[in-house]
Amino acid sequence: MSSTEVTLSPELEEDLRVVKRGCDELLVESEFVKKLARSRETGQPLRIKLGLDPTAPDIHLGHTVVLNKLRQLQDLGHTVIFLIGDFTSMIGDPSGRNATRPPLTAEQIQENAQTYYAQASLVLDPERTEVRYNSEWCDPLGARGMIQLASRYTVARMMEREDFTRRFKSGIPISVHEFLYPLMQGYDSVALKADLELGGTDQKFNLLVGRELQKEYGQEAQCILTMPLLEGTDGVDKMSKSKGNYIGISESPDSMFGKLMSISDTLMWRYFELLSFRSEDEISLLQKQVEEGANPRNIKVMLAQEIVTRFHTQTDAHEALARFEARFRDGVIPDDMPEVGLDGAPKGILKVLREAGLVASGSEAQRNVEQGGVKVDGSRVDDKALQLSAGTYVIQVGKRKFARVTLA
């Protein structure tokens, strides 16, 4: 399509609306509209790339924000390339880090990669997903090819990257191999002839390198779609295993359901926007119902059931709800309760009670446990030596004291 301006048909407008829902930034929108229009005219699907380094074996809901967007693009008829960065994992992504990231061994990478795609397939349509490993084209480059690739990008451009600049000014070492990471990620886009690359907001620099390298290799530059980083169950930090505020997609239905019910009423709408497959109109209607007096807890149940159904079954979701309600049947759980963040996981229940302000002293904590007056997520605590691992818990003392405690 040679014209500089594209007339947005109703179909094109709807496609663009779906693509931009919940996104942080679409670069460059005018270029992407031309790609969409050309795809509709020719029937040739766009090539949509997502690269993930298998640095850990499990995927949590934070990862699925981008996977959900990929599924929406698949439903529009485009080709999704699920790229496993088995080569780049051996370099280590320095994004957002204040120190050199230790590279993974080939054995670790292979072990983690085995479960990655299986879990991602719970969101993506396997029939419309192209699975690739970037060792396919990175290994054959060899030393000569790596030097030629490195000649296409300057140190000055590399130092525009915020975390490199911060570390350089602070005197924190930057290893030469770390400069190779954004180069290799960008070269992936060249090898795959990507039309659009997705990533979190923390990946923006790397995605832009891909655009520039494609131009260097005489290709049409990819567009970039960045997605927000999902807050964890604490509503503060991004979802992360190390923070203990995550919901893994391979967790049991009960665990997943309980954690989703533990998020705040405010955070619930963020999860609806980024995780739910409900339309924007449906979500707006639910918000209006809450504003008019509907209990937000009931809306949160709808969200929890949708997510549990996606990663398990509808029967699992119904049974998880039934068990959740049974645990709280003998008491009224307030919709609004204090939110407390504590460090030092694992931490003993007596310390948790005291530090969360649910009791005034250790002896009071011990007495309440001995008398059966302490519950964690609806289950009575009988063991004074109970250790709570990292996570979010609804803790009850007596009939009226509650706190939602996030332990990291």
Number of helices: 17
**How many strands in all?**
13
End-to-end separation in angstroms reads 53 Å
Order of neighbouring strands in the sheet with most strands: 1-6-5-2-3-4
What characteristic shape results from the CA principal axes? globular
The appropriate CATH architecture of the largest domain is 3-Layer(aba) Sandwich
In CATH's first tier, which class of the largest domain applies?
Answer: Alpha Beta
Low-confidence stretches: none
Query: Which range does the strand content fall in?
Result: 5-15%
Number of domains: 3
Main sheet overview: 6 strands, mixed
What layout of secondary structure does this protein have?
Layout: H1 10-20, E1 25-27, H2 29-42, E2 47-52, H3 61-75, E3 79-84, H4 106-120, E4 129-133, H5 135-138, H6 142-150, H7 155-158, H8 162-169, H9 176-192, E5 196-200, H10 204-216, E6 223-227, H11 253-262, H12 265-275, H13 280-291, H14 296-311, H15 314-327, E7 339-342, E8 347-348, H16 349-355, H17 362-370, E9 374-376, E10 379-380, E11 387-388, E12 391-397, E13 401-407
Parallel strand pairs: 2-3, 2-5, 3-4, 5-6, 7-13
Antiparallel strand pairs: 1-6, 8-11, 9-10, 9-12, 12-13
Helix pairs in contact: 9-10, 11-14, 11-15, 12-14, 14-15, 16-17
